[in-house]
Structures are given as C-alpha cells and as structure tokens.
Amino acid sequence: MEQDYYFPKPVPITEVEQLKKVFHRFTFHYFPFIISLMETEGIVLKRKKLSNKLCYLSVFLDNSGKIDILAKIDLRRFPLSIEPFSISNFKLKFTGEKPELVEVKLIKQNFPETLNRYRYLSLITGYMNRMVYAPNKKIYELSKFYLSIKNTFLLASTMFLVKLSYFEGIYPQLYKCTSCNFESISGFSLEKGGVVCKNCMDTTTVTWNSNLSSGSDILLKRSFNSLPIRKKEMLKKIRETFEKHIDYRIGNEQTFER
Ligand SMILES: [Zn+2]
C-alpha cells in the first residue's frame, strides 16, 4: 500500500533493546503497577473536566494504545498540550489503578479554526475513541497524519474511515457476495459485513454498486495528497456506508462482550 503519512526511517536496534520494548509493552498492559514512570508520545482524544484543576484524559499512546489518565492541571490557563486533537509528550506515573500525569509537553496542536474542521477532527478522534484499544503503530501514524489536514474534509474523512477499517481488520468484502460468492452485487449488507447478491440481501442491506467498490479500493490504496476522488456524491455514499459498517461492527462487539 502506498504510504501517505510520514514514517520515520527505522533506526537499527539491538536485540536487547527490542526485548526491552516487548517487555515494556507487555508489563504496561498486564502489570501496570510494576512500572512507576513512563514517557511517551500520544494523541488527546477526549477530555472530561472534573474541576478547574482536575480532569480525565483519553489518550491514544504511540507505544501503548488507548488509556485514561488523571491529570492535575490548571485548566484556566488553557493548556494546549491536553486540548483534544493535540499531539503531546506524556510523562506518566502508575500508583493505583489509573495512571497519573506527571508532566506534559505539546508537540503539535491541532486546534480547529473553523466549525468544519472541528467536526472533521471530532469524527476522527470519535472513531479512534470507540474503536481502537490495542497499541497500533500504523493507526497511530494514520491518525496523526489525518489530524493535521486543514481542508478537503469530505475526502479526508472518507479516506480515514476506509483506511482505519482496513488496519482494524474489518475492511469489507467488496467484489463477490459475502454469503455465496456470486459475482453480481446488489447491495451492502451491514449484518454480513460486505456486498451481497440479490438472493442474499437482508433487512440491513443498503444500496451499493461496483463503482463504489472500486472507489473504496482507490481510497484505501492511494495517498491523500494525490486527491484520488473528487466526485462528492461518491465520497458521501462511501463515507456513509463505512460509518454504518463500522458502527454495526462496534455495536456487535459490545453486545458480544456483555
Ligand atoms: Zn449471495
């Protein structure tokens, strides 16, 4: 797949360093009380104010996935480092069950200048907040890139959802009926998680055609900067269907977990 976001050149690391990394990731998730301090980069997804000097942050960390942090910070000073959509460096302390914020430094702010950008950024962090838990370097880099975009929001949000569903392993089957493999497409079944033929349509089937399938594949494989699709109606339909598809899958998982 063509990459449209910046991947830093891999630094050669020794086996010991590699082992340290694995150990760190493992202990952080299963035995967080063992580690007392940790420093890492992350994206602020959500902030819940408890008082003027206390809040909860939902953060997607570069190396550890999504966590909730308790932050004692004077919110009246309007700290950009813990503003939603910001990329910051977090120093965390593990004492009890919730990690606590020791220090935070802003790396890049994505403060929305317009209502349209606010809606766009909220869509991205909203899906990350509901969908992604485990550490995932590709999703981290993908989100970081798409949070930095300042125009062409319809294309950007559609591309983000298509790529996110791929990296999360729920990219739909788009060329053959998901149920019976028949090659004539009549719709997209939310329940079956992909396109279906006339005989396999169900009550969750929404309108879809093979042009939209090719369009989705183009959005998945091409880079944002090449502006691969300009047809607004097509983008709207793909975005709407991928939103429904993701919502349906998240909904099912939640039911399953209960
Ligand atoms: Zn079928």
Set out the fold topology.
Blueprint: H1 15-30, E1 37-51, E2 54-61, E3 65-71, E4 87-94, E5 99-108, H2 115-131, H3 137-147, H4 153-167, E6 187-189, E7 194-196, E8 205-206, H5 210-221, H6 232-257
Antiparallel strand pairs: 1-2, 1-4, 2-3, 4-5, 6-7, 6-8
Zinc ion binds next to loops.
Q: How does this model look, in words?
A:
With 258 residues, the protein is of the alpha+beta class. The protein has helices at 15-30, 115-131, 137-147, 153-167, 210-221, 232-257, and strands at residues 37-51, 54-61, 65-71, 87-94, 99-108, 187-189, 194-196, 205-206. It has two domains: 15-108, Beta Barrel (OB fold (Dihydrolipoamide Acetyltransferase, E2P)), CATH 2.40.50.140; 152-257, no CATH class. 38% of the residues lie in helices and 22% in strands. The strands form two sheets. The protein has a five-stranded antiparallel β-sheet. The chain is elongated and about 60 Å long. Residues 5-11 and 254-258 have low confidence and may be disordered. Zinc ion (ZN) is lined by residues 177, 179-180, 182, 196-197, 199-200.
